[in-house]
Amino acid sequence: MDISSLYKVDKNTKVLIDTNVLIFVFYPINSNKNKVDHYSMSLEKLRENNSQIFISSIVISEFINRWLRLDFEKNFQNDDKTKKFKKDYRVSDTYKKTIKLILKTIKKIYKNYNIKNIDDCYSSFDIEKRYKDNYIDFNDLILIHIAEKYNLKILTDDNDINKIKKFSIL
């Protein structure tokens, strides 16, 4: 399904990108072709229409950490010996190559989609209020908070976010 068939997408459209979208589109080994295609097309449509695309530090952090964990699990662990992420992997050549690739990919994402950083508004985040009726991940609550503060839509594949807010793009 094309994003423009669900939402009016133009230069006035302001979107916050969630980590799962970046993983689907940019992680090199992704088996869910439908989601890869859907989110690739969605990002492309936003770019073509000069939409305003934003990303927060929490998304970059999750993207880096998730990619590293996936790489660790798939390419570094073996049957002979269980290895430790920090002790074994982070000092390895595999880690060094992977982090270089991740940083290169992040640079490409920013450049190709004209993405802008956005403040996470944590100073105005009320953790007790946010968790009062919502039992979802902290990072999801922060994304919702950012979207509300800046009047943004969220491009996400996260069902928890979609349950709470109608402004999410799915």
Descriptive account of the structure:
The structure is a single chain. This protein has 170 residues and is of the alpha/beta class. It has one domain (3-169): 5'-nuclease (Rossmann fold, 3-Layer(aba) Sandwich), CATH 3.40.50.1010. The protein has nine helices and five strands. Helix 2 crosses helix 4 (57-76). The radius of gyration is 17 Å and the shape is globular. The mean pLDDT is 86.
CATH homologous superfamily descriptor:
5'-nuclease
Helix content: 55-70%
Calculate the mean pLDDT score and round it. 86
CATH architecture: 3-Layer(aba) Sandwich
Query: Could you give the order of strands across the largest sheet?
Result: 3-2-1-4-5
What is the β-strand count? 5
Which radius of gyration do the C-alpha atoms yield? 17 Å
The SSE string, one letter per element, is: HEHHEHHHEHHEHE
Task: Give me the secondary-structure topology.
Elements: H1 3-6, E1 14-17, H2 19-26, H3 33-48, E2 52-56, H4 57-76, H5 85-89, H6 93-113, E3 116-118, H7 127-132, H8 138-150, E4 153-155, H9 159-164, E5 168-169
Parallel strand pairs: 1-2, 1-4, 2-3, 4-5
Helix pairs in contact: 2-3, 2-4, 4-6
